[in-house]
Amino acid sequence: MKRLLPMLAIFTLLLAGCGRDDLSVLRPQGPVAQGQFDLIKLSISIMLVVLLIVFAISAYVLIKFRRRPEHTQMPEQVEGNFKLEIIWTVIPLILVLVLAVPTVKEVFAFGEDHANDKDAIQVKVTSHLYWWEFEYPQYGITTAQDLIIPTNKDIAFELKTEDVIHSFWVPSLSGKMDTNPDGTINRFSFSAPKEGVYRGKCAELCGPSHGFMEFKVKSVSPESFETWKTAIKAPMVAIEDKALAETFKNQCLTCHAVGDQGGVGGPSLTGIGSRESVASILLNSETNDEGNPIVENMKEWLHDPKLVKPGNKMPSPKEDLGLTDAEIDGIAEYLANYKLVY
Ligand code: CUA
Cβ(202) to ligand 1 under 6 A? Predict the structure, then answer.
């Protein structure tokens, strides 16, 4: 028992992780995830029934036909039984059909191409080593990490990768879909009827920070979505301090876009202060003894990005770009307060 206790503790901790509302396929929050959850339930029920019947028959046979003292002779040898063979071929066949029909239906529905659906919102997803880029071609918007969607709309995804294979997965809204390095584009869609934040994960081992390659799907009311669309397109609000603004422009905007300024390569930083997290894993909602979690997270990230997310491609502002601590803090404050109201 003494030895089992630590095991028990570990499993309790591990299983406690399964209780996360927003990362569980067992708590579907949209029609696609619901359909897939129904399939899981159907297949588990069928398997359970088969398991119970097989175990019951085995137990019955083991007990009923066990060897008794009066059994001195070789029992009767039976070879082949046509009736039985038919039964145990037909029953599994029926079960496979019962499973296959809804599965195939669901799989096709899941992969349905809404690319030409005028009513759907098109989103081009590009995976990068440890972050996600979301482009809305209909609105000319590109953002990162937080995918903002309106409730009850089909979101038609087009997935590709900038580097290695990743997998786009929002457990409570739908199954996984790979992003392929060979240039093929994968499509699927989902919708979220309820407002809320749904956590997404990269579901394909892609490098040292694979486990940190999170993103969020934020489902908002259609009105908020309209406001967001306008807010994110507003011109950049520059840093007040002239010298710092210049540093930011020269060192950060070469790869990052903010509002109408900046370059490409790194994730867009427009409205980063209102995102759910910094660097996908430093959650802005989590309280922090040091005060404002967004500011603290931003500082933690900017002071040593490699420590937060090993193997990521962001140059260290201090070591690689030569920024001073004060400059880094200033930029962190600026970014943390760069919010979009919607
Ligand atoms: Cu990207 Cu795992």
Answer: yes
3 state DSSP class of 215: strand
Q: Ligand 1 centroid to 202 CA: how many Å?
A: 4
Distance, in Å, from the CA atom of 130 to the CA atom of 320, rounded to the nearest integer, reads: 20
* pTM of the complete model: 0.85
In eight-state DSSP terms, residue 276 is: S
| 148 CB near ligand 1 (under 6 Å) | no
Between the CA of 212 and the centroid of ligand 1 the distance, in Å, is 8
Q: Which of 187, 194, 186 has the alpha carbon at shortest distance from 218?
A: 194
**Start-to-end C-alpha separation, the chain:** 55
Q: Which of 109, 144, 115 is nearest to 38 (CA)?
A: 109
Per-residue pLDDT of the chain (342 residues; tens, 9 = 90+): 666 666 666 666 555 555 556 788 899 999 999 999 999 999 999 999 999 999 999 999 999 989 888 888 888 888 889 999 999 999 999 999 999 999 998 888 877 778 888 899 999 999 999 999 999 999 999 999 999 999 999 999 999 999 999 999 999 999 999 999 998 999 999 999 999 999 999 999 999 999 999 999 999 999 999 999 999 999 998 899 999 999 999 999 999 999 888 888 899 999 998 898 888 888 887 665 666 788 888 898 999 999 999 999 999 998 888 889 999 999 999 998 898 888
Instruction: Please name the residue whose Cα sits nearest to atom 1 of ligand 1.
Output: 166
Cα of 88 to ligand 1 centre, how many Å? 43
166 lines ligand 1 (CB under 6 A): yes
Of 327, 326, 332, 224, whose CA–CA distance to 279 is shortest? Answer: 332
